[in-house]
From TrEMBL:
<keyword id="KW-0653">Protein transport</keyword>
<keyword id="KW-0472">Membrane</keyword>
<dbReference type="Pfam" id="PF00902">
    <property type="entry name" value="TatC"/>
</dbReference>
<feature type="transmembrane region" description="Helical">
    <location>
        <begin position="133"/>
        <end position="152"/>
    </location>
</feature>
<comment type="subunit">
    <text>Forms a complex with TatA.</text>
</comment>
<keyword id="KW-0812">Transmembrane</keyword>
<feature type="transmembrane region" description="Helical">
    <location>
        <begin position="185"/>
        <end position="207"/>
    </location>
</feature>
<feature type="transmembrane region" description="Helical">
    <location>
        <begin position="240"/>
        <end position="261"/>
    </location>
</feature>
<feature type="transmembrane region" description="Helical">
    <location>
        <begin position="219"/>
        <end position="234"/>
    </location>
</feature>
<protein>
    <recommendedName>
        <fullName>Sec-independent protein translocase protein TatC</fullName>
    </recommendedName>
</protein>
<keyword id="KW-1133">Transmembrane helix</keyword>
<keyword id="KW-0813">Transport</keyword>
<comment type="similarity">
    <text>Belongs to the TatC family.</text>
</comment>
<feature type="transmembrane region" description="Helical">
    <location>
        <begin position="93"/>
        <end position="112"/>
    </location>
</feature>
<feature type="transmembrane region" description="Helical">
    <location>
        <begin position="21"/>
        <end position="38"/>
    </location>
</feature>
<comment type="function">
    <text>Part of the twin-arginine translocation (Tat) system that transports large folded proteins containing a characteristic twin-arginine motif in their signal peptide across membranes.</text>
</comment>
<keyword id="KW-0811">Translocation</keyword>
Length: 272
């Protein structure tokens, strides 16, 4: 570390943090403005999982035909409509959707600003990991976003939008409710796909070990299957399709944890 970085006071750190937050907010704002202007493209993407010809529905329909059974995913249109019940409902949805789009698209830059803030407190060899960290974390996040959009979202929308307790009840979904399902599905998957990165840092901190993860692998399988059962329609095929990528991430995280753990143990032996 440089002497100037060592001599920074608490207020200096707060000032530095403030500028990182400002730059991150400006980045989100700029992307949000673009998303606000191109609302036709954004909302066409947002409402695509509602249409019966969405690529995921066609894929599941083809799989059903291949195995010789009729699938609920072959419907030409889902049995619900989206409505706005307040004067400012559509405008509010437009604003917040643009902001969330800005956050998702700007994610790599947000990571960059976070790293720039914490990097002065790291050693030189740890700073060299910045490019790899930002690239891998961003890639995993966007893979999670795509997984959430093309798999979790359509499964959730199809099940919840088609669910009925009685023919007397018509599903007329408020726009905020629909967007909330899409947003939570996409963002939660983006965060879940950061599991290898989280395990990397937890292992370096000594909180998690590969032995611990292997020991509780069976428990992890049960938790993943429960999560898959909650967020998918009530059929085994959908649950397995959702659970497999998450379990693959878990296994990759064990490998990463083992690699980091070995390196940390070697460092301790050299220092002792």
């Amino acid at each position: 570390m440089e002497d100037s970085e060592k001599e920074m006071t608490f207020l200096d750190h707060l000032e530095e943090l403030r500028w990182h937050i400002i730059r991150a907010a400006v980045a989100v704002l700029l992307v949000s403005v673009v998303a606000f202007v191109w609302k036709d493209i954004v909302f066409n993407i947002l409402f695509a999982p509602k249409r019966g010809d969405f690529i995921t529905y066609r894929m599941f329909c083809s799989v059903g035909h291949f195995f010789g059974f009729e699938s609920d995913f072959c419907n030409s249109e889902l049995p619900f409509t989206i409505q706005s019940r307040t004067m400012a409902g559509q405008f509010s949805a437009h604003i917040w959707t643009s902001i969330w789009t800005g956050i998702v698209v700007s994610f790599p830059y947000l990571l960059y600003e976070l790293w720039k803030f914490i990097s002065p407190g790291l050693y030189e060899n740890e700073r060299s990991l910045a490019k790899g960290f930002i690239l891998i974390a961003s890639l995993l996040f966007f893979l999670g976003v795509l997984f959430g959009y093309y798999l979790i979202t359509p499964l959730s929308v199809n099940f919840l939008g088609s669910y009925s307790v009685s023919p007397e009840v018509v599903n007329q979904i408020d726009i905020d409710s629909y967007i909330s399902v899409v947003r939570s599905s996409v963002l939660s998957c983006g965060i879940v796909f950061e599991l290898p990165i989280i395990i990397y840092f937890l292992t370096r901190l000594g909180i998690v070990t590969p032995h611990f993860m292997r020991k509780y692998r069976k428990h992890a399988v049960i938790v993943v299957l429960i999560i898959a059962a909650i967020i998918t329609p009530p059929d085994v095929a959908s649950q397995i399709i959702v659970a497999i990528p998450i379990m693959i991430l878990y296994e990759v995280s064990i490998f990463i944890s083992a690699y980091v753990y070995k390196k940390e143990q070697k460092k301790l032996k050299l220092n002792s």
